[in-house]
Amino acid sequence: SAEETLLELKGMHVFYGAIEALKGIDLTVRKGEIVALLGGNGAGKTTTLRTISGMLQPRIGEVLYRGERIDGIKSHELVQFGIGHVPEGRRVFATMTVRENLEMGAYKFNSVDAADLDRAFTLFPRLAERRTQLAGTLSGGEQQMLAIGRALMGRPELLLLDEPSMGLAPLIVQQIFEIIEEINKQGTTVLLVEQNATQALGLADRGYVLETGAVAMSGPATELLSDTRIRAAYLGEG
Ligand code: ATP
């Protein structure tokens, strides 16, 4: 049902050495949703995603997936839980081809399913045209598409996207957001980190706004979009 909780962060505190980057985060993602995680530079968005995907551990608090504690589980094991992560800066394998990069995304399976490759190439026709091209020679937008396609090859139930619009031209950003919407319609739940608040909230069901490591505001995307404080702080108004 729409109320089924996939991901739950409870009172999550995360440190880099003595620096407390997250100061007690509570956040929920339900099956089928697109949830936007917003906030300015250094607010703690990337740290939140890294903690969900097992690259960091909370010093205090819990990360639950389908009610099960997952904090402390290593990244490569978390893939088995159905969590896919498209990291900040895309990180495609530059000296491998587009197709090889996609195949790497299926590493948790014993073999690459042709239907998964077909799905990626259908979502991203540009990648289909460039399937034998080295990933390092792709444009920034194409590399972002490849990073998303690679994560989808693992058939994630929840996809974590870290600033997919970063450094891309508006037209490409729009295309990528449309594809994220399509991926969600096909059944994948999405937690989307963005600095681009207007566009992210245009796509999302709900949003959370982080400020200096804490949730400053949260609610339905439509409410956040019309909130004057949000408009002043993140939408370049006021
Ligand atoms: P950005 O949009 O700039 O990536 P963000 O919201 O993702 O910002 P984080 O990268 O999560 O923010 O950073 C949160 C806080 O943790 C910041 O104060 C940052 O300086 C600090 N921080 C991030 N990475 C490290 C690190 N490796 N060592 C020490 N402090 C860090």
Automatic annotation (TrEMBL):
SMART domains, A to Z: AAA
CDD domains in the record: ABC_TM1139_LivF_branched (cd03224)
Keyword flag RNA-binding: no
Gene Ontology MF annotations: ATP binding
One Pfam family of this chain: ABC_tran
InterPro entries: AAA+_ATPase, ABC_branched_ATPase_LivF/BraG, ABC_transporter-like_ATP-bd, ABC_transporter-like_CS, BCAA_Transport_ATP-bd_LivF, P-loop_NTPase
UniProtKB keywords: Amino-acid transport, ATP-binding, Nucleotide-binding, Transport
Occurrences of domain ABC transporter (ranges): 7-237
Organism domain of life: Bacteria
Gene3D superfamilies: P-loop containing nucleotide triphosphate hydrolases
Membership in a protein family: Belongs to the ABC transporter superfamily.
Identification of the protein by name: ABC transporter ATP-binding protein
Organism name: Streptomyces zhihengii
